[in-house]
Amino acid sequence: MAHTKAKGATKLGRESQSKRLGIKKFGGQKVIAGNILIRQRGSKYRSGANTKYGKDYTIFATCDGIVQFSKKKIKKYTGKLEKTTFVEIISSKNQQLTKRTINK
């Protein structure tokens, strides 16, 4: 005899849609201003040069250039040093200048 009488038998169907978080543009890729680089919950990755945070900690590019990831030691509010990953954009203007100075 069934124990579930009139309230319905299904226990599935409560799964939420995936939020599609993660890295959208990887190191070395070209981006234009406004491109989303990372979608995240909290500040796992920090914004560096030529990038900014959105209201949900999304990191996006503020100028055209190439994505670069770097790790730096940052002092937390507890006083502990911890490595965190920074995302920055190397603008194409800066890159052309460095190539010219290297060739001379």
Task: Describe what this molecule looks like in 3D.
By secondary structure, the chain is mainly beta. The chain has one domain: OB fold (Dihydrolipoamide Acetyltransferase, E2P) (Beta Barrel). 12% of the residues lie in helices and 38% in strands. It is built from one helix and eight strands; from the N terminus they run ββββββββα. The protein has one helix at 92-103; strands at residues 22-23, 30-31, 36-39, 45-47, 51-53, 59-61, 65-75, 81-91. A four-stranded antiparallel beta sheet has the order 1-3-6-5, with no helix packed on it. Strands 2-7-8-4 form a four-stranded mixed beta sheet. The longest helix is centred in the C-terminal third of the chain and has 12 residues, at 92-103.
Please give the number of β-strands. Answer: 8
Helices, by number, come to: 1
Number of domains: 1
Quaternary organisation of the protein chains: single chain
